[in-house]
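Per reviewer request, we include the raw input and output of the structure prediction for the construct analysed in the revised manuscript.
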Amino acid sequence: MAEARKIKNEADALACLAAARASGAGTAQWARAHGVDGRSLNAWRVNMERRGDGPEGFVEVVPGAVTGGRYVLEVEGGRLEFDDGCSADTLRRVLDVLRSC
């Protein structure tokens, strides 16, 4: 298998992050499927977020603490916790709110 390519520059990073978001897949999963080095893409994402100029409307779901069917979603200082008892409708409404941010 060919080695995954590194992100070339900020424009490349923004394009890849937008494509990953549009695909509905996680960033790491999208990167693997498209031959992109996930660590390189994530480093660009983190650095852009630290500068405050990350991709507009970009929200990444990153596994935080998952223990026994409990899930934690942290985005820009906000924290959402839910478990397997959360209904699909409730989770869908929460995701719709996050997408509008």
